[in-house]
Amino acid sequence: MFRTRILLIRHGHYERVGNLGDTGWGLTALGRKQAAKTGKRLRELLVRDRDQLGGLFSSPWPRALETAKIAARELRMRQDSILIREYLHEVMPLVDPEVSPDYGMHPGIPVTSKQDRELTVAQVARVREAFFSTPTRTSTVVLFTHGNLIRYLVTGVFKLPFEAWNRLDIAHAGITELQVFPEAFEALITFNDTGHMPVSMITTA
């Protein structure tokens, strides 16, 4: 049976100093080490399963793209093999008790506007359109992206509202694996795997 394996990689630990913002912040020295560890782990996974590689894809934001480039080096792949996709950038943390009373509140984060929620839902749908279609072969794609987007893709597998993201935490350079099968069946295989890093290197914020 054909399947698509989707490996979701959160970027490494990154600088949040100055006025650069999301389109300027890059990895810290720790983040670069985390990315290298993740690249080595990806190499092991790809060699073990011998899947056809459907591509390395990255958010355009520096912290994700830098993570992808370091991982590609460990995978012994060319830097220009990374395919940048605008829709893989970070999305808003959705907070709305009217949409989802069970999950919709989060301490310290204001309720999301209708317009912002629509933009987030549309972006997640674009990602799913690109990578979650019915497989016609067995392959693996690797997406270097951001925590909230990974959370939304995971909640989608379980048919939960996106607001359930606030029950999930994702470490820097953690690996989450989803699989897509025929007849629109999807499964979570691993979530936030950090076993490729020593405990001292694991960070979340």
Provide key terms for this protein.
205 residues, Rossmann fold, globular
Question: Mind explaining what this structure looks like?
Answer:
The protein has 205 residues and is of the alpha/beta class. It has one domain (4-193): Phosphoglycerate mutase-like (Rossmann fold, 3-Layer(aba) Sandwich), CATH 3.40.50. Helix content is 31%, strand content 20%. It has helices at 29-49, 62-74, 114-131, 147-157; strands at residues 4-10, 52-58, 82-84, 139-145, 175-181, 185-193. A six-stranded mixed beta sheet has the order 3-2-4-1-5-6. Strand 2 (52-58), helix 2 and strand 3 (82-84) form a beta-alpha-beta unit. Helix 1 (29-49) crosses helix 2 (62-74). The mean pLDDT is 94.
Kindly estimate the percentage of residues that lie in beta strands according to DSSP: 15-25%
Summarize the helix and strand pattern as letters: EHEHEHEHEE
| Rg (C-alpha, Å) | 17 Å
The helix-and-strand class reads: alpha/beta
CATH architectural name: 3-Layer(aba) Sandwich
Question: Sheet bearing the most strands, described?
Answer: 6 strands, mixed
Let me know the CATH homologous superfamily. Phosphoglycerate mutase-like
What's the overall geometry? globular
Unreliable parts: none
Percent of residues in helical segments? 25-40%
CATH class membership: Alpha Beta
